[in-house]
Design brief:
Length: about 210
Amino acid sequence: EGLGEMSKKKNKNNVMPKEEVLTNQQKLYISYLKDNVELFIQMLLEKSNDFEEKNRIEILKQIASFTKGKLVHYELEHDSYCTWDHSGYLEEDGYISNDITVKEFLENEYTGRWVATYISGHGMHYTDYKESFEEELSESLNNFKMKNIKNKLNEYFGVNISDAEFNDLYFEAEIDDKLCYCDELDELQFVDNILTHEDFGMTLEEVIKVYG
């Protein structure tokens, strides 16, 4: 249960427990988090090159792993009679060629998955590999921020707060939105800012040879 949240569980007397009360020490941690956002941003930016390189190699290794086997190539088709929705549908059309470039693979090849758009007339969106990797990058960036800020807090107070407790402190402090205002950090979740121009120009066959 999160800090300061009302528990959804009832006790044996069928009475909802009172709202959790933050301890003085927890309040101190939260105050520290709120007061040092600029410090955290500077620290994260100093470590951003390591984040970029680690994720750059991970993306290329995954591409090599994917394309060693045969990946299905999908074509997005549309039915002329389906006038109420223009999402279309994916149709298998052979396999992805290893002669195409990384850029072509990321931007032009579909994973076969779709997500609901909740948009009238276009109910489904089919994800390409670039979008798929950016989902992973977003999660990786969030873990990168939280891990390093937790280490900074532990170091400052000489404690060893658990991941679970820090998650509650982090969200109680409401600093994530402030971190997102930093464009340099926010850009780390996009493939275009992780892979280099040379990476995009490699063929899938070359990626397999180097990173497979």
